[in-house]
Design a protein that fits this description.
The complex is a heterodimer of chains A (321) and B (220). Chain A contains 5 helices and 20 strands. With 321 residues, chain A is of the alpha+beta class. Chain A has a 7-stranded mixed beta barrel with strand order 12-19-16-17-14-13-20. In chain A, a hairpin with a 2-residue loop joins strand 6 and strand 7. In chain A, helix 1 packs parallel to helix 5. The mean pLDDT of chain A is 94. In chain B, helix 1 packs across helix 3. In chain B, strand 8 and strand 9 form a beta hairpin. Chain B is elongated. Chain B has 220 residues and is α+β, with helices and mostly antiparallel strands. Chain B has 6 helices and 12 strands. In chain B, the strands form 4 sheets. Chain B has a 4-stranded mixed β-sheet. A 3-stranded antiparallel β-sheet of chain B has the order 1-3-2, with helices on one face. Classes of the chains: A alpha+beta (321), B alpha+beta (220). At the A-B interface, strand 15, strand 18 and helix 5 of A face strand 2, strand 3 and helix 2 of B.
């Protein structure tokens, strides 16, 4: 049982929820940029959230299924089609051997996650199937998917089933709502920026530039500055940290970030807003708003509750088999 | 994030690494991992797990903070630091920037090599690349700033200097350090369960080898 890549798309990789435990060696977590969508896609086909999925950007991959299976797509909306018929996202979709999955247009979001019932075969490196391109490890041979790649899938026999899973689209949308506001907590170096820069950070809009990828989003906006220029020694950084570059512009570190950095870390995007940020396209304008660490936790717990509800709905569906 | 300021100092770094090791030996429920740097330590934890396990707490952050403050106090009482692991690294000093490092410091190439191999270096932290060890401190006689324009390609095993730091590129990568030599020793091997040779807290001793010795080692 396998799938075959007909067209690779611009940046298709196997990811899971990331590699933890090795940051102290300089090995970053990687993993799905929109970890919420990756988990939802897995639940929708009856998998646990950690199963490897394929992260796809637009222009997207085209994939041939060489056996019957059940798939789902979550995250953005790229107008998914099976052969020439459009399919619903955030629902399981029955696939027959010979079917081709393609994506016609980028309706919303930046990346989608393809989950396959039973999961897919992927290289496990240090406990994760996430692709680490820098060291060529994990996922599919540690690299982007290419034309003709064949990936084994582990689907159990599935029968066609036209029932739908009761997934509340409101619940899913709640994660991506208020597109223009990104919540963050003050970073370890917040105190280094001057008062007018604090004001700029909190009141003006910043645009995601085209120099944005899985490593980081470079932002364009009014220039910020520090109270006094000091060379900082390297310190740990995380997914979501916002650093002030020497040219006064901001960079938000994303899933494939380095583990340490030497630029002022002025704020950190709260974990619950990372899925939303991961789906914001180039040219999107965002405003940052500071919240307390306590509120950041509340929002993470609320995101987790949403996920648990979706998981319960899916489990209920698959228990009937 | 725990920070002791903006200073490269062995005794501060020792405290950070002692805490990093203490957390690994005595993790709190919900602890994921910690990352030591020169003078700070990032502690990663599962806030959801902590909150569900202790429904009466206000924030997981406060609980973790309290645990770490107590652990810091415990460590300073039992300070006795174990001797660092010493790793010897053979270097063939023929790097593309060796002459530059010698020239701007008004030294001969031989003197640069002698100075670079004269002391043991402390691995303060790893970062930038998997297994890239930031080591120091370099004798002030050979301190050299980073290249103004980083190279697009620096080969794995290249030994470099950046300011008062020295390091070895574990994999091929772009980079701006002044390259003074190369080692045939594997610094990073993704196929090993423990892929990185150098870890924060280790001590490194460089020694100079000639071209023949380097090529012989490189065959293995």
């Amino acid at each position: 049982m396998s799938i075959k890549i007909i067209k690779p798309g611009i940046c298709s990789t196997i990811q899971d929820l990331g590699r933890t435990g090795f940051r102290s060696l300089g090995i970053g977590p990687g993993g799905a940029m929109d970890f919420f969508a990756a988990a939802v896609a897995n639940y929708l086909v009856g998998n646990i959230e950690k199963q490897p999925v394929i992260e796809i950007h637009f222009p997207a991959a085209e994939i041939l299924f060489q056996s019957n299976t059940l798939i789902s797509i979550s995250g953005g909306d790229f107008d998914a089609h099976i052969n020439e018929t459009s399919i619903e996202i955030n629902q399981p979709c029955f696939i027959q051997a010979g079917d081709v999955l393609s994506f016609k247009k980028n309706i919303s979001g930046v990346r989608i996650y393809l989950a396959i019932n039973g999961g897919m075969e992927a290289e496990n490196w240090l406990g994760s199937a996430s692709t680490n391109i820098k060291v060529k490890a994990g996922g599919f041979k540690g690299r982007l998917l290419q034309k003709e790649d064949t990936i084994k899938i582990h689907s159990v026999t599935v029968e066609k089933d036209n029932r739908k899973i009761a997934v509340s689209s409101n619940a899913i949308h709640s994660v991506y709502n208020n597109q223009n506001t990104i919540l963050c907590i003050a970073g370890p170096d917040w105190h280094l920026i001057n008062a007018s820069s604090e004001n700029i950070f909190l009141t003006s809009a910043f645009t995601i530039t085209n120099q944005s990828d899985r490593m980081g989003y470079r932002m364009a906006g009014e220039s910020l500055s520090v109270k006094k220029t000091t060379e900082l020694i390297s310190s740990p950084v995380v997914f979501g940290i916002i650093q002030l570059l020497p040219n006064g512009q901001l960079i938000i570190l994303m899933a494939d970030h380095q583990t340490t950095g030497g630029y002022p870390r002025i704020a950190t995007v709260i974990a619950a807003d990372l899925p939303k940020l991961a789906q914001l396209p180039v040219n999107a304008k965002i405003n940052f708003k500071l919240v307390s660490p306590g509120e950041a936790e509340e929002r993470l717990i609320s995101l987790h509750k949403t996920l648990t509800e979706i998981q319960a709905g899916c489990q209920n569906f698959y228990d009937k088999y | 994030m725990l920070s002791y300021g903006n200073l490269i100092d062995s005794s501060i770094n020792e405290k950070i690494i002692a805490l990093h090791k203490a957390l690994a030996a005595k993790p709190f429920p919900g602890f994921i991992e910690s990352v030591p740097a020169y003078a700070s330590l990032a502690v990663f934890y599962d806030a959801i797990f902590i909150r569900y396990n202790q429904p009466n707490i206000k924030t997981a952050f406060e609980v973790v903070k309290k645990y770490i403050i107590e652990l810091v106090a415990e460590i300073s009482e039992t300070a006795a630091n174990k001797a660092a692991k010493i790793i010897s690294i053979p270097v063939y000093y023929n790097g593309a920037d060796l002459e530059y490092v010698a020239t701007i410091n008004q030294l001969t190439i031989e003197e640069v090599i002698k100075i670079h191999t004269s002391v043991n270096y402390r691995v303060f932290m790893t970062g930038f690349l998997p297994g890239f060890a930031y080591m120091g401190t370099v004798d002030e006689k050979i301190i050299t700033p980073r290249k103004e324009t980083p190279r697009l390609h620096v080969a794995a095993g290249s030994v470099g200097i950046a300011g008062a730091q020295t390091g070895i590129y574990p994999i091929d990568s772009p980079g701006g350090w002044q390259i003074i030599g190369k080692t045939a020793l594997s610094i990073f091997d993704k196929n090993k369960p423990d892929p990185c040779l150098l870890k924060a807290g280790d001590e490194v001793q460089f020694f100079s080898i000639n071209k023949n010795e380097f090529e012989k080692e490189n065959e293995h």
